[in-house]
Amino acid sequence: MTKRALGVLIACFCTLFITYSIRYGYGILLPGMLVTLAISKTEAGIISAAYFIAYTICSPVLGLMGDRFNSRVLISVFTGILGTGALLMAYADSVVEASLYFALAGVGASACWAPVVALAQRWVSPGRRGTAVALIDVGTSLGIVWMGTVGPGIVTAFGWEAGWMSLGALGLLVASINFILMRNQPSEQSVLQSTHSGRSADISLLALYSSLIHNGKFWLFGVAYMLSGFAILIPFTFLSTYAVEELSLSYGASANLFIVIGIVAGVGKIGLGALSDKTGRIEMIILSTLLIVIGTLGMAYAGGFLALALLTIVFSFGYGAIWSLYAAAAADYFSRELAGSIVGLWTMYLGVGSILSPIIAGRIADTTGTLTWSFIVAAAGAVMALVLLLLLWKGK
């Protein structure tokens, strides 16, 4: 691996680190926001949904732009927008303001997944795609660990507003790192030029979309992607609140669960990602989804910290690898050169699940007085994803 390739992968790692620190840091900072802003769990879900509405609208376009235009500039600029949105969250005084600021962060984040993993895959050999994506995806886990470790101390000493300020400042720093380290691809040419002899490079955008729309596997992957996102976001949004309000754990203990998620997810990313290069992508996606089913269903019945921590470990191992496995599957099943566009389209499905998930879970909790049923609904979503993935596995 060249020094330039290593620099690109480091920048990709940093981008995913801050993106997921902000995305899932919301759940860690939420208990304090509920009190200060005097909002219900449904309203908390609406704020979270605002992020994913913006993310969903922008991701397909930016996934395409990452494949066809200057990835270095694109990712750097939108990482800066992500950081700005997080910074503004510290100044939110209402549900409307928080929703608008978090939506801005969602706009920035829309260029911080599909274009990033597509760029990373261009800098490694085909046989190392799963491993490379898994390695940079460890940044998402470490971002969660960082928030789980540092977040409670910042909140205790300075308030939840300082947590958002820290995230925003770090986002702006990573934007600068991206501009310094990133390059578009080894040949420094556009994807279409560098792959002129490849069949996928000659496909027009309209033809690409048309072929995918008529491809049953694309739809099965997309809906499974949506249902997986639906299931995963419920624990990330409400696990800390659930631990504090219903299991009477301290805020510090509830934040420790996110440290567990980050560490175990990192192990899952590397282990299952590397294993998928040998055993097959779909098999590992199925295993990851099964672990998410077990983890989310068990959370609903956890009676204390130890049980909840154990089930969080199970959930985290499955969650850790799943997105990088889907990204690698896009290159395996469809097109390496246009993987960013494909993952961007799948992100539309993910967005639907992620928009509905926190609102439905919050509404159920407000209606029933408990988050138990919200976790059961999360498990049901993962079960449906598992069924679709088994159909893909059977028909491969």
How big a fraction of the residues is strand?
under 5%
| Total tally of structural domains | 1
CATH superfamily: MFS general substrate transporter like domains
Low-confidence runs: 188-203
Mean pLDDT: 87
Per the CATH scheme, the topology name is Growth Hormone, Chain: A
Give a verbal description of the structure.
By secondary structure, this protein is an all-alpha fold. It has a single domain, classed as Up-down Bundle (Growth Hormone, Chain: A). 84% of the residues lie in helices and 0% in strands. The protein has 15 helices and no strands. Helix 3 packs antiparallel against helix 4. The longest helix is centred in the N-terminal third of the chain and has 34 residues. The protein starts with a helix and ends with a helix.
Give a short summary of the structure.
With 396 residues, the chain is mostly helical.
Question: What is the secondary structure topology, with strand pairs?
Answer:
Blueprint: H1 3-36, H2 41-68, H3 71-89, H4 95-109, H5 114-122, H6 129-158, H7 160-181, H8 191-194, H9 205-213, H10 216-245, H11 251-279, H12 281-299, H13 305-333, H14 339-368, H15 372-395
